[in-house]
TrEMBL record:
InterPro entries: DNA/RNA_pol_sf (IPR043502), Integrase_H2C2 (IPR041588), RNaseH-like_sf (IPR012337), RNaseH_domain (IPR002156), RNaseH_sf (IPR036397), RT_RNaseH (IPR041373). This is RNase H type-1 domain-containing protein. It comes from Rubroshorea leprosula. Residues 153-282 form the RNase H type-1 domain. Keywords: Endonuclease, Hydrolase, Nuclease, Nucleotidyltransferase, RNA-directed DNA polymerase, Transferase.
Length: 429
């Protein structure tokens, strides 16, 4: 079974060649910020891909209705795959009423223009009855990267927070709603005595931290606590020393959003977040669908940590790649700039940290020389260290999710300097 799976993964389906005049099928994939399509042909009741395209939406295109985005996907496919559309009859399989939309006399100007442009081709629209190649179109549109300078749609992300404190316990709940039906529920249980106002603030901090982890820049927050809303919006003065610390924490998180709005809503409209907070505060409740996190002390009592530079500003192999990915800085030499662009295509930046793309592994954290030496020492001499050989040591570090260019060479030098490794090297383990 393992050999079959390995052979299947190593031989993906290739693009096929269309026969002159045969019937072709077009599947569409639509999302908020991208469109895609897959052109396929049928052979012995199997659909084989011929070509696929994808395009990122910009500006006003982001505000098109779903049906108009589907029509735009057909027009884009006809422009990029014009030889196929001119020499083959095309059947567009979609769940949108494109034929009725493009033939309406009262349609908008751009739809009329698209209808005239598509009129020269032999295109038939049919209702999609099965998934089949639609899964490939959806996969392409999901993998189409969004440009880094694209602006998010305002108020796409909504956060509902609430806290509860009673004799049975106290807890907080946060409900995050996003585009395309995204929904995330989080609950927080307190192992300390918390007032109702403290629970409300902990719920707000929980929701904001969740939003920052998802790299959300524009968010609308709703809470049923009049005190919290007024204090955060500077409507009333903060007197309680504990509330002052909570307001400072929220203000620190607010600075990470491009747009932040906190509004008061009635308790009846905040029912779902209220249920999450009560669920967390009740120790007898249990659910597999809601993850309950335990907080042992108030958030303002957690120790503040400061990042300390360990490389002492020494040059590292990651500097040029990070500068290119973050700021677009390239060497003045043309050949060196070309080499850097090719090399940088295999790396990515996540929260300012450099990672290497891998074919069969997750993203690998890139280490500078100081961090690489520490990783080798921990794997070789740590709690579970076994003083293995250089090749095995480099492989173990790689499997832990770390990477740097001279892994095997550095592992060899490290093993040669290790007395225990040299003493037991001749023994059979």
């Amino acid at each position: 079974m393992l050999l079959f799976l390995r052979s299947y993964l190593s031989s993906p389906p290739l693009l096929t060649k269309a026969i002159d005049g045969e019937l072709l099928y077009l599947y569409l994939g639509i999302s908020y910020e991208a469109i895609s399509s897959v052109l396929v042909r049928e052979e012995v009741r199997q659909q084989k891909p011929i070509y696929y395209i994808s395009s990122v939406l910009h500006g006003a295109e982001l505000r098109y209705p779903i049906a108009e985005k589907a029509a735009l996907a057909v027009v884009t496919s006809a422009r990029k795959l014009r030889p196929y559309f001119q020499s083959h009859p095309i059947i567009v399989l979609t769940n949108q009423p494109l034929r009725q939309i493009l033939q309406k006399p009262e349609c908008s100007g751009r739809l009329i223009k698209w209808a005239v442009e598509l009129g020269e081709f032999e295109i038939t629209f049919q209702q999609r009855s099965a998934i089949r190649a639609q899964a490939l179109a959806d996969f392409i549109v999901e993998c189409t990267p969004c440009p880094s300078n694209s602006n998010p749609k305002p108020n796409d992300w909504t956060l509902y927070v609430d806290g509860a404190s009673s004799s049975k316990g106290s807890g907080a709940g946060a409900l995050l709603l996003g585009p395309e039906g995204y929904r995330s529920e989080h609950a927080l249980k307190f192992n300390f005595d918390a007032t109702n106002n403290m629970a409300e603030y902990e719920a707000l901090l929980l929701g904001l931290q969740l939003a920052l982890q998802l790299q959300i820049s524009v968010i609308q927050v709703y809470s049923d606590s009049q005190l919290v809303v007024n204090q955060i919006n500077s409507i009333c003065e903060v007197v309680d020393p504990v509330m002052v610390k909570y307001v400072a924490l929220v203000a620190e998180l607010k600075c990470n959003f491009q747009k932040f709005c906190l509004s008061k809503i009635p308790r009846a409209e905040n029912e779902q977040a209220d249920l999450l907070s009560k669920f967390a505060s009740d120790s007898s409740s249990s659910s597999k669908s809601v993850f309950v996190e335990v907080l042992d002390e108030p958030s303002f009592m957690k120790p503040r940590m400061m990042e300390i530079s360990t490389n002492l500003d020494t040059p590292s192999w990651t500097d040029s790649i990070i500068s290119f990915l973050r700021d677009g800085i390239v060497p003045e030499d043309r050949q060196e700039a070309m080499k850097l662009r090719k090399k940088a295509s295999r790396y990515t930046l996540v929260d300012g940290i450099l990672y290497k793309r891998s074919f069969s592994l997750p993203l690998l954290r890139c280490l500078n020389p100081y961090e690489a030496e520490y990783a080798l020492r921990e794997v070789q001499e740590g709690v579970c260290g076994s003083h293995v050989g250089a090749r095995t040591l480099a492989h173990k570090v790689l499997r832990q999710g770390y990477y740097w260019p001279n892994m095997y060479k550095d592992a060899t030098h490290f093993v040669q300097k290790c007395p225990r490794c040299q003493f037991f090297a001749h023994l059979t383990h």
